[in-house]
Design a protein that fits this description.
637 residues, alpha+beta, 5-stranded antiparallel β-sheet, 4-stranded antiparallel β-sheet, 9 helices, disordered C terminus
Length: 637
């Protein structure tokens, strides 16, 4: 113990005391289990030695790491990893009656699944898997299973007969005194999954006989129908009374429900670190951002770093910023490691599409919710953070593009199908009625066409097919509402219009605002045309001609994309620089100047390189998606 400094007692187990200690060599916090051996029976000493033997065999990021064991003061001392985030049971208890999101449940579950698979591949039974023995790191992102004090190493075909484990988690075969194998751990895994989904145990009773009766009958309350049928079926299969009917771990990991969650785990060289799946219970400092693109990326440092070194937490893969109306914050993403590739902003709607084709919606929180941090240069006016969520009921549909109108949204799938949802009051949904629809529904009148683009105005929609056919529906400026059978109107064909100098080379990006438009050519030149009342064309000079003119302040700068708001413009450079100009009232440009007719850079305060993947403007708001690089290996900071 001369290598350690005792800090405090953090627990007392069946065999001894658990100390939190400081390892003097590297100032690392560790847990030391102090197990008295002098008064132990032979069987108890074997159990203590068994824990050391088991821990030596296991090496997995979701299993508590074993360091060493030694004898001191007639006690066996076992040094192991410290998990400061507490137990999963404590995390669940703090939720009260607030159910977890399904993504969060699966985020925890698949880590337990990986850990248990690692344990079973070493022919080991945990035999006491429960939420009290599942620990969390300080960010409550990484799950680690521990307490192998009653584990048993098996030969390849042997079975254990000893009835051990916490009564609420024991399997029916244990209740009957029958031999059991890894399927008993799978039963306990089902109990843990049920507890994550219901915030209560599957089997509870006032006494042991009543508990055994419940377990033997397999009766438990169903989990909430807010969760997917796949998750509910998984719980039922894990809690099958017949051990042979419980799926093996390899089959569980192969289910689509778990594959998606497994692929979302952020893996680094030598470690596993993940971004939080949802808002933490205790607030902490924001995570450092990072990026990708044609810039320098962080990598593994070689040699000995100066001063105390610690691995940096990898940045999230993607971020989405919004500013306008006094609000200028990075939006929360509904899932760890989500990569947003396209965003759309409407007056009332904000949406994004991930690389995997899932649709994200950002919604205003209930009144009284707190605000988020402002970007540099934004006006000092706190507004509530948006609540993000994945669109429900999207199974089997891959979204390619999203567009937002007032209170409604239109999506284009990878198969060229248009889907709409939201308010149908202006006939914007194209479903032959004025009814509201909460889930994306196919615009059936367009099923005979392969669509390549969709765009939304405040209360109308335009859709373009591969055969250069244009469709429009909704409510025009005149306020007339089409009859239900006229919801989708076809323009048989259209001809491109040439406008010098934009007809000299291909266009990379075009967008339109309330009274002006902008375009970017293949060579990276940005042109604007239309009204310049608020300097939205990128010049303070009066424009008489309506001919597209190159933005003077961006000459010599290669531009990749452009977006137009009501009286302002945002351009993205080839190196992901962000420029804005026009009417900057209410902080919509991310800076304080009220009227800026010349392009000026917008500082996002990013400490790592990044690439802008999408930008969208509507009325007085801008939505910007950036992608960062994956951190390769430990980074010293």
């Amino acid at each position: 113990m001369e290598k350690y400094e005792r800090i405090r007692v953090v627990g007392r187990g069946a065999f001894g005391i658990v100390h939190l200690c400081l390892r003097k060599a590297d100032q690392k916090l560790v847990i030391i289990k102090q197990i008295p051996v002098e008064q132990m029976t032979k069987e108890e000493r074997q159990a203590a030695q068994n824990e050391c033997q088991v821990l030596k065999l296991l090496n997995h990021p979701n299993v508590i790491e074993y360091y060493e064991n030694f004898l001191e003061d007639k006690a066996l001392m076992i040094a192991m990893e410290y998990a400061p985030g507490g137990t999963l049971a404590e995390f669940i208890q703090k939720r009260c009656n607030s159910l977890l999101e399904e993504e969060t449940i699966l985020h925890f579950f698949v880590q337990i699944l990986l850990a248990l698979h690692h344990v079973h591949t070493h022919l080991i039974l945990h035999r006491d898997l429960k939420t009290q023995n599942i620990l969390l790191d300080k960010h409550r992102m990484v799950v680690k299973i521990g307490d192998f004090g009653i584990s048993k190493i098996l030969s390849s075909k042997s079975k254990a007969y000893t009835v051990v484990g916490t009564p609420c988690y024991i399997s029916p075969e244990l209740c009957e005194g029958k031999p059991y194998n890894q399927k008993s751990d799978i039963w306990a895994l089902g109990c843990v999954l049920y507890e994550l989904a219901s915030l209560k145990r599957a089997f509870e009773a006032a006494n042991l006989p009543a508990l055994v009766l419940k377990i033997m009958s397999g009766t438990f309350a169903p989990i909430s129908d807010r969760y997917s049928p796949e998750l509910r079926q998984l719980v039922l299969s894990l809690l099958s009374l017949e051990p042979a009917q419980r799926p093996p771990l390899s089959h569980i990991m192969a289910q689509p429900l778990c594959i998606r969650a497994l692929l979302n785990l952020h893996t680094d060289l030598g470690s596993v670190r993940m971004r939080r799946a949802e808002k933490p219970l205790a607030t902490g400092p924001p995570m450092a951002p990072g990026s990708t693109g044609g810039r320098t990326t962080s990598g593994r440092c070689r040699g000995v770093p100066r001063g105390p070194a610690r691995p940096a937490i990898p940045p999230p893969l993607s971020s989405v910023y919004v500013w306008g109306g006094g609000l200028s914050v990075p939006l929360r993403l509904p899932m760890l490691n989500t990569e947003v590739v396209q965003v759309a902003a409407g007056r009332t709607q904000k949406a994004g599409v991930t690389r995997s084709g899932r649709l994200i919606l950002w919604e205003a929180p209930p009144l009284g919710a707190g605000g988020g941090p402002l970007l540099p240069g934004a006006v000092e006016q706190q507004q509530p953070q948006f609540i993000s969520r994945f669109l429900e009921g999207q199974s089997g549909v891959t979204i390619k593009h999203v567009a937002c109108g007032d209170l409604f949204t239109a999506c284009l799938t990878d198969r060229g199908i248009i889907m709409t949802f939201g308010s149908g009051s202006n006939g914007c949904l194209g479903h032959g009625s004025l009814n509201d629809i909460s889930q994306p529904t196919i615009v059936e009148a367009l099923l005979g066409y392969e669509m390549v683009q969709v765009a939304c105005g405040a209360s109308h929609v335009l859709a373009l097919s591969t055969e250069r056919e244009l469709f429009a529906w909704g409510r025009g400026d005149g306020g007339e509402e089409p009859a239900p059978h006229q919801q989708v109107e076809e323009a048989l064909s259209f001809t491109p219009l040439g406008s010098a100098p934009l007809d000299c080379e291909p266009l990379l990006s075009v967008d339109l605002g309330t009274a002006h438009s902008a375009a970017v050519t293949a060579s990276g030149d940005c042109y604007t045309f239309g009204s310049n009342q608020h300097g939205q064309l990128g010049t303070i000079a009066r424009r008489v001609s309506r001919v597209p003119c190159q933005v003077q302040g961006l000459q010599g700068i290669k531009i990749a994309m452009v977006a137009c708001g009501d009286a302002f413009t945002v351009a993205i450079g080839a190196e992901s620089e962000v420029y804005s100009w026009g009417k900057g009232a209410r902080g919509r440009l991310g800076r304080r100047d009220e009227d800026a007719g010349l392009p000026r850079p917008v500082q996002l305060d990013e400490t790592h390189p990044y690439t802008v993947t999408s930008v969208s403007c509507c009325h007085g708001n801008t939505l910007l998606a950036i992608r960062r690089s994956r951190v390769q290996g430990p980074v010293w900071e």
